[in-house]
Specification:
Elements lengths: L1 E5 L2 E6 L8 H4 L10 E7 L10 E5 L2 E5 L5 E6 L6 E7 L4 E6 L10 H6 L3 H7 L3 E10 L2 E6 L6 H11 L4 E5 L2 E7 L2 E5 L15 E11 L4 E3 L3 H10 L8 H17 L1 E7 L3 H13 L5
Length: 288
């Protein structure tokens, strides 16, 4: 039995060995009395016949609606459309995961393994949401650089670490989990870090969120709150086929923008851009 605490969830895994899990997932290994979710892995076994209606479909996932709001999912490799896993919620706490034997070795890939747990769905039930961002610690607070892939999040956070080596270091190069506790917003570690390879299971109070844009001239862009809302929504992992979770995510982002500094920064990704932004954040008192 393997026990993990990821965000607000205590997770118990059975039918799988620790050696088959991704290294980053094992960073979240812990001990607890009672699990919120219990996953039973059945590797190499055929899943049961599916008789539920399809509620969502893309090239890499097929989602079925079960009674009482539960779900089942078939997961596909996006390049070959071969099925590598089947996920089914048995009740509120118990989940069975069937893994195609041909893809057993793929379990050590972060994105493959975490997709089999459908954590974004269960974290949303606890009021926590995954943000696509570079998660940087700056003097024990989180600065989150967000934006679409290729915008320069990892590069920019890396420049901060080079410019301020005693103050800044990256905790995750691709994602973090957003939570709120007693009215305070936190960034939490997440077991998927993209191509950055940087993953730490650490939690920080959020100082600010910086929405990056590419530009020749470095400047802080004054935008209306609705623009920031749309940009953060676009970078948040949401099961849009579930109206309740979609509304919860939108309410969460509205609350986030009320509690945390957020701004758009157009920059050329250089040391100069780091210093310019640093001075701007100091002036706004988003960092000390």
């Amino acid at each position: 039995m393997i026990k993990l605490t990821i965000g607000k969830l205590n997770i118990q895994l059975e039918g799988i060995d620790a050696g088959e899990l991704p290294e980053n997932t094992l960073l979240f290994r812990t001990e607890f009395e009672e699990a919120d979710l219990k996953y039973t892995f059945r590797i190499g076994e055929n899943p049961p016949s599916i008789h539920y209606p399809v509620i969502y479909q893309t090239k890499d996932i097929l989602v079925f609606g079960k009674p009482e709001g539960r779900e089942a999912r078939i997961l596909y490799m996006p390049d070959t459309h071969n099925c590598y896993g089947y996920y089914e919620e048995i009740n509120e706490k118990e989940i069975t995961v069937y893994v195609n034997e041909a893809y057993r070795e793929h379990l050590r890939i972060d994105t493959i393994f975490i997709s089999l747990l459908a954590l974004e769905r269960h974290e949303a039930q606890k009021g926590a949401f995954i943000l696509h961002c570079a998660y940087m610690d700056f003097e024990s607070h989180a600065i989150l650089f967000s934006g679409p892939s290729g915008i320069g999040k990892s590069t920019h956070s890396g420049l901060w670490c080079r410019e301020y080596p005693d103050k800044a270091h990256v905790l995750n190069g691709d994602k973090c989990l957003l939570t709120v506790e007693n009215g305070i917003m936190y960034a939490n570690g997440w077991p998927v870090c993209g191509s950055s390879g940087i993953c730490h299971n650490e939690k920080r109070k959020i100082a600010c969120i910086i929405l990056l844009q590419q530009a020749i001239v470095n400047q802080f862009v004054e935008e209306k709150t609705i623009c920031s809302f749309k940009q953060i929504l676009a970078q948040t992992t949401i099961n849009y086929w579930n109206n309740n979770y979609t509304k919860q995510a939108m309410d969460f982002i509205e609350s986030l923008l009320r509690r945390v500094g957020c701004g758009t920064y157009a920059c050329n990704i250089s040391s100069e851009s780091v210093v310019t932004l640093y001075n701007e954040l100091k002036e706004r008192k988003w960092i000390s």
